[in-house]
Amino acid sequence: MWVLLGIVVIVAGFLLRFHPLLVILASAIVTGIAAGLDPLTILAAFGKAFNEARYVSIIWIVLPVVGLLEAYGLQERARGLIARMRGATVGQFLAGYMLLRQGLAAVGLTSVAGHAQTVRPLVAPIAEAAAEAQAGDLDDDRREEVKAWAAATDNIGLFFGEDIFLAIGSILLIKGLLEQYGISLEPLHLSVWAIPTAVAAFLIHGFRLWRLDRRLKRGAAATEEAA
């Protein structure tokens, strides 16, 4: 029953508002000692748990790196880059990003890009800079709209690109569901038929981005006439 001391440590640590990671670490150590394990065995258990969950904890390495890059002017650099590109528009930039996102997702690299990794530090600031180059100063509503388009483009690119990859969870889910109804399909067949859907999604969203460019251009023309 001494091994239950770990639960007591967790309850006491949370009641005293200690750091959760320290509370869990202390609880694991207390539980190991109460179970009669030597320190090396406890340390080995920590190492095994970290190794098995390393893909889950990798995000805690990515986020500080992104934050450090932002602190040293990553967004400003991105804005300056798009400002030097003559004729670049929000729609063109986001369409190119969507194509890249779909291509990476199609080969299984779904975590290479994303909201935390690319949209917030890079894609959204570049899209804002492109919108400013098209329509001048943006009000808060238009700025938030451009950010929303950047986030939506990432979502659509990932959603309609990942099904092309054979070993993605959605493909396996579809295969298992169809088998329950007596329909047997190979994952390759599902992936192949996901390609036309991805192409259609790119064309439809690309048309919407083209309309976004048109709206920004009309807004800029109206502002110039008013001035």
TrEMBL record:
It comes from the Bacteria. Pfam families: DUF969. Keywords: Membrane, Transmembrane, Transmembrane helix. The chain crosses the membrane at residues 58-75, 156-178, 190-210. InterPro entries: DUF969. It comes from Sphingobium naphthae. This is DUF969 domain-containing protein.
